[in-house]
Design brief:
mainly beta, Immunoglobulin-like, 13-stranded parallel β-sheet, globular
Length: about 675
């Protein structure tokens, strides 16, 4: 069946084009596999909760009518404002909200950083812009401008709410604007498009504008709410939508509630990482597998103004494709912070592909946490992000990162194993750390089945054929520094030992790995083999090894030493620093290229000014044979479908021939490259 929905319709109609339904929810209640629901122009103030899912052969399709502006919003217009001195107030009967009142729901969850403020899920919007919640009526009357927000001048547009048994009162400072003219909305619904129950598979949602949902903080150890999402299902397609102003998450591909619900911060009995381990095993017992969960497609969406993440996912994001999305202004208001913030934040993104996205002006660009096994991040453009463009945290790989343009001040951070960076352009620094307290799983290749668990000494990474572009006016010296994990704040020497997870950093380049063993160094397992084969005490890896505690040298075989790294044929411009054991490094005091971020015309411009420096740095084609396998997982660096990598084409698909130019572009002549991001 093909159903139609129109603002001129009625839910008593049959849902034909001539006699359409009035609400999308009516169509969602009766839709069966193979049905299509076309929604016509208008603003639909409802939570769409599909009763049924489709099948792989017969998905249920929800689509905006071609060329028509169809909006699904979690907000309602409020015009009943009265003066209260120099501010305004409105009183709303609590029955207006039904069983969910965002102004009575506290922002809460695991890995949400504690502050002195109590924030709520409610928002007040003036002309579509979310205003700023205050702690009291007095703060509404005299709001202070916040310089941490990306829009400091708007932070004095303020509100505060009070709730009793009968009514919700909202006080607001509109800075001279008249709220009675119909330009003020408040969010009242938790979701825009979200099945109330899990297991609604194979649904396509395309062409809508969806905004202003009162979603809760979405950690990996709780129900991960999103303005839109499949809610623990399989095979959704979310495409060609404009998604904005979710309190926390735009699109959620995450877990459901039964496998864990904020037990770290409600029970206080175990640490968060142990609770996350429990979530994973519960999910496996609850049917988490490629057959049942994940395999979603998220493409061609514009996602912005979300408080936590543009796209989030734990477990439910596995085997998915995320491509051609424009994600920006995530955590724009800077009202709160936590360990789940970024343009894309995924846990257990097994065999997930993230490609051809533009991510900018967020806290982090792409944050891969736990079990990024078989994950590939490629052909993305990132800039203007506060922290790193890409972070890979406590994952055993293999994780493939190739052909990305990473232009933020911090390009890459890792406390993982077995990550390969190939043919990227990195204009920011790399920082590294280890993690000896958290054990995380690794899996049977291309599966959710767990093969083992271990912790992180670091290493087993590959850096081949990248360009490292140091800023010409870099304020950093060539000396190492230690930084904090979240803010990249520089630590003083006496602060490092007591810091939680300090990260080592150098200026742009790979010199941050100088103390790691290289490809030709003796590996710990090679020393172990000698010990067991010959019975002879192995030679010390350093002159003073074990001297302090007077233990024999073989005791070092069980030490927490980093694994070797493999670094070859990278190019370093403007004094960028190379790993001291790198083979084929090309270092230049000047540069072959420069870039400009043209925000007015919404494009990034890369000028290749000295192509001869790139041509003389050409190297071999990188493929799976060269990359090998991840140490702990013993899985090849290969595509999610199990076929080998061969990087014989560039950012635009142009063939590289026999000699690969480092970086994303196979360019041999002067050239201007323009990449739009509107």
């Amino acid at each position: 069946m093909h159903y139609h929905v129109s603002k001129n319709g009625s839910d008593f109609n049959p849902g034909t084009e001539e006699q359409p339904f009035l609400t999308i929810s009516k169509a969602a209640y009766i839709a069966k596999p193979g049905d299509t629901i076309t929604v016509h122009e208008g603003v639909y103030r409802e939570w769409v909760s599909p009763k049924s899912g489709g099948t792989k052969a017969q998905p249920i399709v929800y689509q905006a009518a071609e060329g028509e502006n169809v909006v699904i919003t979690g907000a309602e217009v409020i015009t009943d404002w009265v003066r209260d001195g120099d501010i305004w107030k409105t009183e709303i009967d609590n029955q207006f909200f039904g069983n969910f009142n965002p102004y009575n729901e506290v922002l809460f969850g695991d890995w949400l950083f504690k502050t002195d403020r109590v924030l709520h899920l409610g928002e007040v919007y003036l002309d579509g812009r979310a205003m700023y919640e205050q702690a009291s009526i007095e703060d509404v009357r005299n709001p202070k401008k916040s310089e941490t927000s990306l829009e400091p001048e708007f932070t004095t547009f303020a509100w505060y709410s009070e709730i009793d048994d009968h009514k919700t009162t909202i006080y607001a400072n509109f800075q001279g604007e008249d709220p009675t003219k119909g330009n003020v909305e408040i969010n009242t619904r938790r979701f825009c498009f979200w099945p109330e129950n899990p297991g609604r598979n194979y649904i396509t949602v395309r062409g809508f504008t969806m905004k202003q949902a009162a979603t809760q903080w979405a950690p990996p150890t709780a129900l991960q709410e999103g303005l839109i999402g499949p809610h623990w299902s399989k095979g959704w397609v979310i495409e060609n939508n404009i998604i904005s102003d979710s309190k926390n998450v735009g699109i959620s591909l995450g877990k459901e509630e039964s496998t864990g619900q904020n037990e770290w911060t409600t029970l206080f009995t175990k640490m968060g990482h142990q609770r996350e381990q429990e979530v994973i095993f519960r999910a496996l017992n609850n049917g988490w597998s490629k057959d049942n969960i994940g395999s979603h497609i998220v493409r061609n969406n514009k996602i912005f103004n979300c408080g936590q993440a543009g796209i989030v996912g734990h477990l439910g994001c596995a085997f998915s494709l995320i491509e051609h999305n424009h994600i920006y202004d995530i955590r724009k208001k800077r009202e709160y912070h936590g360990a789940e913030v970024g343009g894309i934040k995924l846990h257990a993104a097994i065999d997930t592909i993230i490609r051809h996205n533009v991510i900018h002006d967020s806290f982090r660009g792409v944050w891969l946490d736990w079990q990024s096994q078989g994950t590939r991040v490629h052909h993305n453009l990132m800039f203007g992000n506060d922290s790193e463009d890409i972070l890979v945290e406590v994952s055993h790989g293999p994780t493939m990162i190739d052909h990305n343009i990473l232009l933020s001040d911090y390009s890459f951070k890792t406390l993982s194993h077995s990550t390969a960076l190939v043919h990227n352009l990195l204009a920011g620094i790399i920082s590294i750390g280890n993690e000896l307290n958290r054990h995380t799983p690794y899996h049977v290749p291309h599966s959710t089945a767990i093969a083992g668990m271990t912790r992180f000494t670091g290493g087993d990474d590959r850096f081949y054929n990248n360009i490292f572009l140091r800023p010409k006016d870099d304020w950093r010296t060539n000396e190492p520094i230690y930084q904090t994990f979240f803010g990249n704040d520089i630590l003083k020497e006496d602060e490092v030992e007591d810091a939680q997870a300090p990260f080592l950093a150098y200026p742009v380049g790979t010199s941050v790995f100088n103390e790691y063993p290289g490809a030709d160094d003796e590996k710990p397992w090679e020393r172990m083999r000698k010990f067991f084969e010959t019975g002879e005490e192995p030679t010390k890896s350093t002159e003073n090894e074990d001297d302090e505690d007077e233990k024999p040298a073989y005791a070092s075989l069980s030490k927490d030493a980093p694994l070797a790294i493999y670094v070859e044929n990278n190019v370093y411009f403007n004094g960028a620093l190379a790993y001291k054991k790198e083979k084929g490094a090309k270092l230049f005091d000047d540069s072959a290229l420069e870039f400009t971020i043209d925000r007015d015309n919404k494009k990034v411009i890369i000028d290749i000014t000295k192509p001869e420096l790139l041509v003389e740095s050409a190297a071999d084609i990188i493929d799976t044979e060269k990359l090998g396998f991840g140490f702990h997982t013993e899985q090849l660096f290969e595509k999610p479908d199990g076929t080998p990598y061969c990087f014989n084409t560039d950012f635009y698909g142009e063939p590289r021939g026999d000699n690969a130019i480092p970086g994303p572009f196979q360019v041999t002549d002067k050239k201007r490259i323009e990449i739009p991001f509107s």
